[in-house]
Design brief:
The protein has 351 residues and is α/β, with parallel strands linked by helices. It has a single domain, classed as NAD(P)-binding Rossmann-like Domain (Rossmann fold). 40% of the residues lie in helices and 15% in strands. A 7-stranded parallel beta sheet has the order 3-2-1-4-5-7-11, sandwiched between helices. Helix 1 crosses helix 8 and helix 9 crosses helix 13. The chain is globular. The model has no long low-confidence stretch (mean pLDDT 93).
Length: 351
């Protein structure tokens, strides 16, 4: 595969930008798709990479909703890293079908249709999510040993309840359907990377990642009264990116990989770490009572059903395969948050 290029879809995104950078650092030739090559504000960091690694990065325009959109970019590529997909936190989604389900599902189909026509592709690494495995935190309590593992798929999310999670499970299942429909022996292999909430330094100043939006609210002091009793599976963006590369370089990599710490972290723990780093009294150190959040939730787009299935529920994750097969090394949460904060401050000062 070494002499062929690799394709990264959605190359300007939060995780994808790190994948592109790590690929370039490793000496690979990269084709990257973006929605517009004219939107320099959105792709300026990629243009900088083209300068730093002359001749190694070529950008193509592609649209998740347009059939045939990825055909040209994929020519001559051996590995396809499919990262392009919309990500919003639940209370920011206005139309689940239009905002997240259609782009995620159509994009996966259009990328894999192109793979089917491109004989050079040997591997697809799909960026899925832990939410393709579970919908609400309460779901994990029904799993073996109340531990999240890749033997499960999310069965509780719908277009009206956890629409983003629903889009991720539909897209991943569709990818497996495409893979399994190949005549034997299959020409291309599929590996999925299922990260938790992804934090850490951003290379893209205009990233629309939902996890970054949540942290912006915290850092801007918008949650100064306190945070809900919510628990998150967390991964550093650099570890998630490296896992993609490891999935491609390890011939024994197969199936699905949870990329996240082995336990969930409380929202209040994130807040307290950031408060200690910033010395800002606008960042809270307390958890709001469940009743207060349940009563106010509907006003900020969080249904009482959603809150009842997520507030106060923590769980463990089986990240063992990421350690043993991908060699993932999870850095301390404090380091991820410190680097996230420095990146955030740099972006604020440049605006």
């Amino acid at each position: 595969m070494a002499d062929k290029a690799v394709l990264v879809t959605g190359a300007s995104g939060f995780i994808a930008s790190h994948v592109v950078q790590q690929l370039l650092e490793s000496g690979q030739r990269v084709h990257g798709t973006v929605r517009s090559t004219k939107n320099e504000g959105k792709i300026n960091h990629l243009l900088d990479m083209q300068t730093r690694w002359p001749g190694q990065l070529t950008l193509f325009e592609a649209d998740l909703l347009v059939p045939g959109s990825f055909d040209a970019a994929m020519q001559g590529c051996s590995v396809v890293y499919h990262l392009a997909s919309p990500f919003f936190i639940e209370n920011k989604i206005r139309d689940g079908q239009k905002d997240v389900v259609e782009p995620a599902l159509s994009g996966t189909k259009h990328v894999l249709d192109a793979v089917g026509k491109c004989d050079t592709v040997e591997l697809v690494v799909l960026t899925s999510s832990v939410v393709a495995i579970f919908g609400d935190n309460a779901d994990v309590l029904q799993m073996k040993n109340a531990t999240l593992s890749t033997e499960y798929f999310n069965t509780t999310s719908t277009v009206s309840h956890n629409a983003y999670s629903y889009s991720k499970v539909l897209a991943e299942k569709e990818a497996w359907r495409y893979h399994d429909a190949q005549p034997a022996p299959p020409r291309w292999k599929l590996v999925t990377i299922n990260p938790g909430m992804v934090l850490g330094p951003s290379l893209s100043p205009t990233s629309e990642s939902g996890s970054l939006s949540l942290m912006h609210q915290l850092l801007r002091g918008e949650l100064f009264l306190g945070v809900p009793d919510l628990w998150f599976s967390i991964a550093d963006v650099r570890e998630v990116a490296t896992a993609h590369l490891q999935a491609a370089s390890n011939p024994d990599a197969h199936g699905r990989y949870i990329i996240a710490h082995k336990q969930t972290y409380g929202f209040v723990e994130l807040a307290r770490i950031l408060r200690s780093l910033t010395k800002s009294s606008r960042i809270p150190k307390n958890t709001l009572p469940h009743l207060v959040v349940s009563l106010s939730g509907p006003f900020i787009g969080l249904s009482r059903k959603w809150l009842s299935l997520n507030q106060g529920i923590k769980f463990n994750l089986d990240n063992g395969p990421s350690l043993s097969e991908l060699g993932t090394v999870y850095r301390p949460l404090e380091e991820t948050l410190a680097d996230h904060l420095e990146s955030w401050k740099a972006q604020q000062s440049s605006r």
